[in-house]
Amino acid sequence: MAKFMDVHHGMSGITAEQLKEAHAADLRIEGEEGVSFEHAWADPDSGTVYCLSEAPSKEAVQRVHTRSGHPADEIHPVPLSV
Amino acid sequence: MAKFMDVHHGMSGITAEQLKEAHAADLRIEGEEGVSFEHAWADPDSGTVYCLSEAPSKEAVQRVHTRSGHPADEIHPVPLSV
Question: A80-81 and A2-8: which strand pairing?
Fold first, then answer.
């Protein structure tokens, strides 16, 4: 397992409720891919969403997001953290 | 106070020790700007570093990072989080 930060662009105007629903959609199926989404942060003005997860691979993160209807634009492994 | 995610590019090859030192340098002066850096995550391969903070403004976040010698390339307010 490794830690990943993924980034979604083009989510301008996202509301707290929409972020909560998108995150809940990921949580409902993440177990099937061995992924654990920990947090998500959104900037409605620029339309950027960041998600932090623990996952077996970048591809597993993307499979969950794609199945939930919101594929990520970038997925970075973040092996270092403080 | 608001929450911010800032992003640094061009940090390829950053080590755990360098991330820890950079974060410690921010923590030493953050109080002077009313900023509280909570976490930082790094991807040494792509050279990307993400920092999560609580701060009075985007400018305050950048002042701390600039004074510490590592200005951010992007700073996004992230008023929404789950």
Answer: unpaired
Are B39 and A82 an interchain contact pair (Cβ–Cβ within 8 Å)?
yes
Domain locations along chain B: 2-77
Average pLDDT score, chain B? 97
Instruction: Flag whether the pTM goes above 0.90.
Output: yes
- What is the DSSP secondary-structure string of chain B? -EEEEEEE---TT--HHHHHHHHHHHHHHGGGGT-EEEEEEEETTTTEEEEEEEES-HHHHHHHHHHTT---SEEEE--EE-
Under DSSP, is residue A27 helix (H, G, I), strand (E, B) or coil?
Answer: helix
Q: What class is the A2-77 domain?
A: alpha beta
What residues of chain B score a pLDDT lower than 70?
none
The pLDDT of residue A2 is 97
Closest partner CB to B19 (pick from A41, A76, A82): A82
ipTM of this complex prediction, to 2 decimal places: 0.91
Q: How far separated are the first and last CA of chain B, in Å rounded?
A: 18
Distance from CA of B81 to the nearest CA of A (A): 4
Helix (H, G, I), strand (E, B) or coil at A59: helix
> Contact B23/A78, CB-based, under 8 Å?
no
